[in-house]
Amino acid sequence: MKNKPxxxxxxxxxxxxxxGLVRPSRDKKGHVQMVRAIETKTDVKGKSAAxxxxxxxxxxxxxxxxxRIAGIGIGAPGPLDRKKGALLCAPNLxxxxxxxxxxxxxxxxxxxxxxxxxxxxxxxxxxxxxxxxNKRFVFYATISTGIGTGLVIDKKLYAGGVGLALEAGHATxxxxxxxxxxxxxxxxxxxxxxxxxxxxxxxxxPSASA
Length: 210
Description:
Blueprint: E1 6-12, E2 16-23, E3 31-39, H1 47-62, E4 69-76, E5 80-81, E6 86-87, H2 101-109, E7 113-117, H3 118-129, E8 137-143, E9 147-153, E10 156-158, H4 189-192, H5 194-204
């Protein structure tokens, strides 16, 4: 790590892809040195176009000196296959389905790459260094384009056998309810995500959208 002091962090979201250059520190918190962000192209067709977008922003960040990068960590919306490093079928990224992000990034940049559910990664961060520090049980929820949740017990991430233990955003609260991006009806995400709350507000107050 002395000769490779930086780690690249990638956050693939429903509206933006953000990439940060982080220098780990003795306090294990890390210090962000640089950040880049671009709009997520949800209308791209096929895996190659999605991966090219990811390649472009990472390349832009590390163009000056790749030799100082120890590895790449990628947070992506679920459901995903943590072992294979593949994004399976994220409802808010319809054209990113079955994309082997981890292996592809690792081959392209010749660096170790790990993929984790973004809510899981955030929950572990809060448990180790944030509001959940020194707590045995930490439950985390993120509300943005979608809804993600994570659980940490005794500072260990609880993700289940295949990593899908806490996809609470797609828990059904009304079997005859609002349609969700995942194809089901009545999911929590169909009511409480950022875009869903905006749609509901405009239904109640049509003049607000004018």
